[in-house]
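Exercise 7.
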Amino acid sequence: MGSLDGRRIVLTGASAAAAAIADALADSGARVHRIADGFGSEAAVAQNLADAQDTLGGVDQVVHAWVPESVMTSSSFMSLSEQDWADGCEAALSGAWWLARQAIPLLLAARGSLVFLVPTIGMSGAADYTMLASVAEGIRVLAKGCGRQLGADGVTVNTIATAAHLWMPPDDAKTVTGATTLSTPAFGRSGDPATDLAPLVALIGQSEAHFMTAGTLVADGGIWMGL
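Solution. The predicted structure, written as tokens, is:
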């Protein structure tokens, strides 16, 4: 990953993977503002981004990797209550929508980049992880719509789809991967957030990637292609 000196990045998410990506971007010279929570309302999201803008003096890239913890928990679809669905799936989709709405004015000013991180199970589905799969695919479609709308204004919106291992405990991720792929990963591993994913996040936000928008980069080490 090349130098990111002066680049101003907002990265959401409370996971260890999100923290590792943030640290790797910062080690390459970026100024990174993390938002671990505060997605309960659009007003809260707006305040989080306002704080980030004040801290960074502007925003060049927003990377969204936040979902409620409940959507990463194994549960039978039929066991989910309407409230479970609202607290998990609907909350995650609302958070992503609010973030896009509030981030767009900042990114228009910088002709910047919006990136969503999701697990690949949104493209394949996964038993007992209906909410996470629904959230992942919903966010991916949101990114496509935003990318189509903002391309002419110089703002790119893309999705990076990663292995389940970056979203859930190792044993659960192994189970999900085994149920949704027919082959071993091409690289033999699921990927490291700092060395495998952070460079892609950085690349999408640089001028060399200015003509790529509304797309999905599958960065799971060649797991999902086994389908």
